[in-house]
Amino acid sequence: MTESSVKKLAFTLLDAITDKDPLVQEQVCSALCSVGEVRPVETLRACEEYLRQHDKLAHPYRAAVLRAMERVLSSCASELDKDTASTIILLASSEMTKTKDLVWDWQQAASGVLVAVGRQFISKVMEELLRRLHPGTLPHCAVLHTLASLAVANAFGVVPFLPSVLSSLLPVLGMAKQDTVRVAFCSALQHFSEGALEYLANLDRAPDPTVRKDAFATDIFSAYDVLFHQWLQSREAKLRLAVVEALGPMSHLLPSERLEEQLPKLLPGILALYKKHAETFYLSKSLGQILEAAVSVGSRTLETQLDALLAALHSQICVPVESSSPLVMSNQKEVLRCFTVLACSSPDRLLAFLLPRLDTSNERTRVGTLQVVRHVINSAAAQMEDKKPFILSSMRLPLLDTNSKVKRAVVQVISAMAHHGYLEQPGGEAMIEYIVQQCALPPEQEPEKPGPGSKDPKADSVRAISVRTLYLVSTTVDRMSHVLWPYLLQFLTPVRFTGALTPLCRSLVHLAQKRQEAGADAFLIQYDAHASLPSPYAVTGRLLVVSSSPYLGDGRGAAALRLLSVLHPNIHPLLGQHWETTVPLLLGYLDEHTEETLPQEEWEEKLLMFLRDTLAIVSDNAWICQLSLELCRQLPCYDEAPQEKNFLYKCIGTTLGAASSKEVVRKHLQELLETARYQEEAEREGLACCFGICAVSHLEDTLAQLEDFVRSEVFRKSTGILNIFKDRSENEVEKVKSALILCYGHVAARAPRELVLAKVESDILRNICQHFNTKDPALKLCLVQSVCMVSRAICSSTQAGSFHFTRKAELVTQMMEFIRAEPPDSLRTPIRKKAMLTCTYLVSVEPALDEQARADVIRGCLHSIMALLPEPMEEDGGCQKSLYLETLHALEDLLTSLLQRNMTPQGLQIMIEIIAKRLPPDQLISLLLTMFEALGDPEKNCSRAATVMINCLLQERGGVLQEKVPEIVSVLRSKLQEAQGEHILPAAQHSVYLLATQHCAAMVSSLLGSPLPLDSHTCMLWRALAVEPRLAAQVLGLLLEKMSRDVPFKESRAFLLGRTPDRVATLLPLSATCALFEVMSTPAAGPAVLELYPQLFVALLLRVSCTVGVQLPRNLQSQERRGASPALATRNLEPCSSAVDTLRCMLLRSGSEDVVQRMDLEGGWELLRTSAGHEEGATRLARAMAEHAGPRLPLVLKTLACTHSSAYENQRVTTTAFLAELLNSNVANDLMLLDSLLESLAARQKDTCASVRRLVLRGLANLASGCPDKVRAHGPQLLTAMIGGLDDGDNPHSPVALEAMLGLARLVHLVEAWDLRSGLLHVAIRIRPFFDSEKMEFRTASIRLFGHLNKVCHGDCEDIFLDQVVGGLAPLLLHLRDPQATVASACRFALCMCGPNLACEELSAAFQKHLQEGRALHFGEFLNTTCKHLMHHFPDLLGRLLTTCLFYFKSSWEDVRAAAPLFTGFLVLHALPRQQPQVDLDQLISALQILLKDPAPEVRTRAAEALGRLVKLA
Prior knowledge:
Blueprint: H1 3-15, H2 22-38, H3 40-53, H4 59-76, H5 82-97, H6 104-118, H7 122-131, H8 141-153, H9 155-158, H10 162-169, H11 179-201, H12 214-229, H13 237-251, H14 256-272, H15 281-296, H16 301-317, H17 326-345, H18 347-354, H19 363-379, H20 381-384, H21 388-393, H22 404-419, H23 428-439, H24 462-476, H25 481-484, H26 501-518, H27 520-523, H28 536-546, H29 552-566, H30 568-571, H31 576-591, H32 600-618, H33 621-633, H34 642-658, H35 662-675, H36 681-695, H37 699-710, H38 730-750, H39 753-769, H40 777-796, H41 808-821, H42 831-843, H43 851-866, H44 877-901, H45 909-917, H46 921-934, H47 940-957, H48 965-978, H49 984-998, H50 1000-1008, H51 1016-1024, H52 1029-1045, E1 1049-1052, E2 1062-1065, H53 1067-1080, H54 1086-1091, H55 1093-1105, H56 1114-1122, H57 1135-1149, H58 1153-1162, H59 1164-1169, H60 1174-1188, H61 1193-1200, H62 1209-1222, H63 1227-1230, H64 1234-1243, H65 1250-1266, H66 1275-1286, H67 1295-1307, H68 1313-1327, H69 1336-1352, H70 1359-1374, H71 1381-1397, H72 1401-1410, H73 1419-1433, H74 1438-1448, H75 1454-1470, H76 1481-1491, H77 1497-1509
Antiparallel strand pairs: 1-2
Helix pairs in contact: 1-2, 1-3, 2-3, 2-4, 3-4, 3-5, 4-6, 5-6, 5-7, 6-7, 6-8, 8-11, 10-12, 11-12, 11-13, 12-13, 13-15, 14-15, 14-16, 15-17, 16-17, 17-18, 17-19, 19-22, 22-24, 23-24, 24-26, 26-29, 28-29, 28-33, 29-31, 31-32, 32-34, 33-34, 34-36, 35-37, 36-37, 36-38, 37-38, 37-39, ...
């Protein structure tokens, strides 16, 4: 490579450095660096010369060149010779000081060059910089900046020069008047000091280990004197901060006595700046360094400054921290670092200052102080060890603060205390309780909400932080285990800690498991030694009850059950094995559900079963009685949680049921009745459930206790007899009655069936029935509900058949009274539903109701329900609708029960038949018309009788009414619009059927005269004609004739010149199509549809094809726009949609459901409706027919045979698409249809319509998938057709040519090799221009076909075709970046197929690895690998490939145009020196130079990248 070539390449890139796009400019610099990595010296000299020659180049671009030089130097500085280094140093120095003004990016870039050279040639750089320091003259700011940067980058090289530098700079410090110059001096002094400190800290690696701090002390103090006493007083904030930032490291270099002398002035001077600066990070950082320096020399002056220091630092820590300000956060860290220094040197003074401030009520002061305390606890643990009691006692007032920010800070302090042993001290338990209290806060509402400007995310709430702290302390701090266990157990039962149950349980589980690992003695709880702990009975009850609402409180159900399982040795020794098996099943059930999907009743039943099994295993009456006592005691704890209290009642009932002591059971039941809060509905229900569950084992005792309570004076509305009731109002007494009645109901429902029958009337109903005269709706509902439970209990008994229920009639009568008392026009309570459900059970019990009673029940229930609105409009409409539906179901069940007891048939038909036989013909129509009028009679029985009479008359005398058919149909339609009875429509359908059996053609014509769109009644009349197969076939035949009699559309004249005329549907075929749909939608029409299957299918398919794009007549369009009336059918009247719906209906009715389902899934019906998708829709229909209705096809094809000469082009296209797709299935061969299909397609090959010709080629190609074994026999014919299709017409983008390429791709693997060989080259040459076609489909098809041609030639590729393969490589590689994904995918396939023909295993393997379909392609990596193999195995192709790339430099696709220079660059990267003669380097550079001006930034970027690689050939 000659120097001139490198220079030309570098200059080309340097000319592009002025690109406006920053990414391109960055790539140009990167390319320049790439050139520099290969030839650093020449590149650097070229850059230096370029800058000298282009003196007017703007400073941003000069800076870019200098930055590129810096990058080259950073990696290749060691290759520089001294002369080049000197040249570059002079250039950079000149660029840096060319202007006295501050142009930061330019001067910084030049400075960077000097620093980079200085790493290797520090002496020369320092010599040049010292040369720029003139005695008595202020240095350039950039020189100062460079000296400072060098001190950081090469401290070992710069520090020996520091005395010389300082001796030059210090005399002129006083001359610096401009703030920018002073700031530069401060920065230099700061970095000099940092460099010196680094040097002194690493003397073992220093070039001169004899250097000591004294060497700089005097000069640094001189500088300090100017900075502190003069510059620090400046009004310019930036300068003051720069001074302070320098004073920090400088303080470490001051002589000890000087530092001690200056501290009384230095520290107050720094502290005073806190009031002047909003950003205080640099002040705090410097202060920390000064404090460290003072402590390191054992300063005694520091003690006198301590109060002022603490006050200033404390005020800084109390500044609210905004997370969006990094400097504020950093300042907090530096302030805390200062506190650490002071804590280590003066711990007593520090605590004496901090702890009293915890007593203040100011939020910021308290939060800041707590933050410092936490930090000191962590960072000065040794110094704070003996101060623990004082710190703990000082937390008394902060623990009482309700401010959320203070709470967060307190929690963080307690966390730190836990890690350092504070909580083991007296008073530590108060800290633990505080954490638990915060865990119990409501998760969505805290005592104090954050202000509108602050951010208080849910994850940082007091509760969330407390929960995390409790768990971390429990699980990660080993020393806390004996503090927390078993102490945390005492927080489980108090109500105020309910919100903390989940974190408590999780922590306790972890602690318990650790104790178990330590041994049984450490785990078992000594309750005598821990009197404050809850008993095992209290723990069991509490954890079980809260588990009934398992998803509350972050999933406390699962946490409580896990804790219960772990605690089993402390609850009862026999429970371990059972709980270890059962609890995981309960937890798994919770995992399967969410709060929304959990069936609450089922879950509660699982918990109660768990409790029953536990009690059975324990089998200790004393233990069970103690548990029941504890459960009763916990009842008041759940007054605010009705659902959990309800479950607690069930637990009490279950526990009492397991107790063997009758006295205990009676005592607890009495207490429950006396203490229940009867005003609460949920509690009444819970109490009743408790009694019901208890009655399972103690029926006699339960009823006796209820009897005692019923006898009390409460039910006589007297007061003063029982103290617990003396203050109750009458309303309260009703609530008590409701609860007692419910108790009886639940007792009956749950008690053993073999015992309950004997008690029903004597003990249960006797106490229920005496309250039937109430007007209180709640009591009434309880009565109905309880009677319902009693009735159901009787019915479900095995002895129900022999049980004679004497109170049955009385109860039924009472239920009917309740129903009749309900408001007739509204449904507000479930009394109706419950009462009817009760009657349903009662009806099936002996003795049976008499006839009058049954009638009264039916009449009363129907009257009560039918007047109600089906969809109430109240606010709780959803609940009301549900109640309405449930009430209807109850009525249905009741009627069913009554009918099952007594069913009798009734009729009127015989009488009507007699009348009809004797009626004269002239009076027949009059009678019919009179009967038609009676259809609208408001009395349903009359209208029902009229329908029966009409149909009887038509059946007997319809034969004489042929001329009256249109009139009868018209009257029927009008009456159907008016009549409301649901029985009228079926009767009218039967009338039409009777007339049609006698006058079919007249009926069809009359109904076809109905206006469109068809109303729902007309639709039902059409369907009536399909109830009998023979009639249905006759009707279908007539409708097919009507549909094909008229032209399908008429063309209207276009208003605009050149516009295609509109096609408007004709009415008769449209009406016939709609009628066909209605007739075939009836299941009974199935046999008739099967009989006419081929005629119906073909006629409807042709109807669909010729109505695509056809409009409705204007009058019907306006109706469609206005919207149909409610009585009109909802079907689409649009001609094509109507035909498609009818075809779909025909297939359904003929048993071809699979065809319809396949079309539904594939969206075929929607495609058939549209002009754009119609062809595809016909194809999918054929595919579905071939797969699911093959036996039907021979007759269908026979019917289709004559359609190739249809006058309608759309019909020819549709039928050709249908036939073409049939060849895609083996059904053509299986049914011996292949030859006829091929002949039919051949007859259409010269059709004037290009779409037909294209579909013919598709059909021929389909042979490859439908009958692949037949392709070889028809190979010549198929290839001739396809190759001919490539040259179809003059259109370069002919769709026929596209279809030919697609077809050839499918056929080439199946034809004889000899048949293909003769046309192989022609095809390859013919499709090559399509690689770069503007149309995506042509690029995709041609490239994919090229891949298939390669695949066919594997192992037998002739040289002449191999040349085509080689010529196609570059286009295929570049089109991998085609903007269309399908083209890129085709290129992947084609390249994989080309690989074997290139006889290069590595290249083929690379194609297979990178180009697998579905795998993400890293194009650069792949292209790099490909070029490496190409240049290694095909070195002679370099010139040819580069020439092809040059062609694609002008591609219209940006991504392809960008890929071409990338390809070029990789080819050059892997080229060998001996290949250089193949490359016209000047031409290549010129072409890339043009690309550097491309409008697309990506292209310019790739061009620059390629230029960077050309250095290899330059």
